[in-house]
Sequence to fold (328 residues):
Amino acid sequence: MAKKDEISVALQPEKVIANSDNQSQAIESMILNIRGKQVMLDRDLAMLYGVTTSRLNEQVRRNIERFPEDFMFQLTSKEFISLKSQIAIAKSVVDQPNTNLKSQNATSSWGGARKFPYAFTENGVAMLSGVLRSPQAIATNILIMRAFTAMRHFIGTHAQMFERLEIMERNQLAISAHLSDTDKKLDEVFRRLDDGSIHPTQGIFFDGQIFDAYAFASNLIREAKKRIILIDNYVDDSVLTLLDKREKDVTAAIYTQAITPQLKLDLKKHNAQYAPVDVLQFTRSHDRFLCIDDTVYHLGASLKDLGKKWFAFSKMEITTDALMANMK
Fold:
């Protein structure tokens, strides 16, 4: 009869040693990483020893002074739920027909467990060999300790690879965060383009895009905070109306080649009712320029003809003050 501090086993020692390669692989699959430690659960150890989980834990309790916390600890509810959701270790082993690890005393599924399982570190498993001194326990412990050694060797051999994978994962997260930030910035740019708060620096309007070109010019004029200067040899009353879209206290001046009697009349009537626009004669410009505060835009068409034919526009590098200095 076995001593009280020994656990009776259901399998013969030679059956455990048989096909040890398959058994070693099965045992390695039972080694988990919990709290940063390599451990095995009481349920899996009981199955390997051919006893019930309750019988294994009962024997451990009788020798509890041999199992400090770094040898054995009980899983928390959070750890247990996480473990259940990821793997079913014992089931995967029992279902393999060639492992020779089936036991009539194997414990029930985790779904029926009333207590959270205990986890044994490598030292804890080694201590079990002192508590369970049957030939079966000794043979099983040899396989388990070899499995722990193989796992340590594997981790040590591939530590650099794991480190690189971790670095790659961190870099991927950083790239994803950067891309997410870039997407947000692009979304903001597109939003501001849609609401007219920013404008493209260059582009082309084609014939027929009369309203689009008109809206583009109107938005530029509304954007002015201090002054608007238009250099355009072909202006009429429609240009005066367009300039009326500017904010209050924003000055407006037009430089044009000829001030015709019609333009003089239009200007007089306009300035009698609306914020005044100054019109001055300037004959040295062939192209059209629209200055919004300190920003200068080159226009390929007169404001009164925008959208009637193809024309291009572009934001110039020169400032308004620099442009005006050359007009003197």
Observations:
- Residues 13-157 form one domain.
- The chain has two domains: 13-157, 199-325.
